[in-house]
Amino acid sequence: MPDPPRDLVRQLYRTPPDRFVAARDGAVADARRAGDPKAAREIARLRRPTVAAWLVNLLALERPELVADLVQLAEALRTAQRELSGPRLRELSAQRRAVVGALVAEVRKLARETEGAPSAGKLPLAEVEATLNAALSDTEVAEQVRTGRLLRAASHSGFGEVPRPHLRLVTGGADEVVPAQPAPRRPDRAELRAEQAERAARAERARRRQALEKELARARTDQERAEADLAGATAAEHDGAAALDAVEAELAELERRRAVAEQELSRARLARRAAERTVTAARRRAGEVEAAVEALDAEEGDDGPHGGTAD
């Protein structure tokens, strides 16, 4: 199934999250009116990002060259880590902090220039920074950031300085071996109990985090399903409203024609009544004339040859 138009997707993911659903549903309705139900379904599947993810998307869409620089830095960091180059890794780590700080500042600027964005005090910049650091550590996160379609903030225990191993320095012969550091003191029982308690607490926190993450995943799945249902219901409502408008227009036309027909019927009734009155008057006049003719005929009969007086 084809993807939605790229320009439309980019425009939607530039839209602040509190306006995303309305903009997406409007695009769904436009696609339906254009006779493209497949595009409408694909657009309806687009999910609203969190505010932090939207800010990262805004950076990727408006400043792609900065994100490209971030990807290059990530590759350099991975190379230094593979080669266990401590000085180079520390140098790149310092550069990473500077680059990430500059990108967060750019995000703040872009949000300030975007209509409908949250106020500066409500921007989750810590999550933005964590996501950018995760992109430096995780190629999958980096790709999501680059596309500008990130849905949630990401975090990763990324690059740090490479720990230096404890080594014995050997310079020449055996007599020149520098003694190793003395073995560390074995912890006592109290320390062991404290360590065990700490491990248990960490395990409990990990278990709770895993349970919460599963619950969060289910909740987000339910949210996405509900949003898809909402989009479908909204599209159906728009279609129903359009059908109702068409029926109401037809009813209005029928009402107009009915009014015209009633006026014509009223005029016809008035004409019939006038004609009836005319016929009645004509019949009366004809009767009167017939009576006059008969009377005249009767008078002429009386004045005939047999009706006069003798001389």
Question: Brief description of this entry?
Answer:
The protein is mainly α and 311 residues long.
| Helical coverage, percent range | over 70%
Average pLDDT confidence is 79
Largest sheet: none
> Order of helices and strands, N to C?
HHHHHHHHH
What is the distance, rounded to the nearest whole angstrom, between the alpha carbons of the first and last residues?
A: 130 Å
List low-pLDDT spans. Answer: 158-184
| Number of separate helices | 9
Strand content: under 5%
Q: How many E strands?
A: 0
Quick one: overall form? Answer: rod-shaped
Rg, Cα atoms, Å = 47 Å
Q: Would you tell me the structural class of the helices and strands?
A: mainly alpha
Question: What do these coordinates show?
Answer:
By secondary structure, the chain is mainly α. The protein has a domain at 49-160. It has helices spanning 6-14, 17-33, 37-44, 51-62, 64-82, 86-113, 125-137, 139-147, 189-302. Helix 2 (17-33) packs across helix 9 (189-302) and helix 6 crosses helix 7 (125-137). It is rod-shaped. It starts with 5 loop residues before the first helix and ends in a 9-residue tail after the last helix.
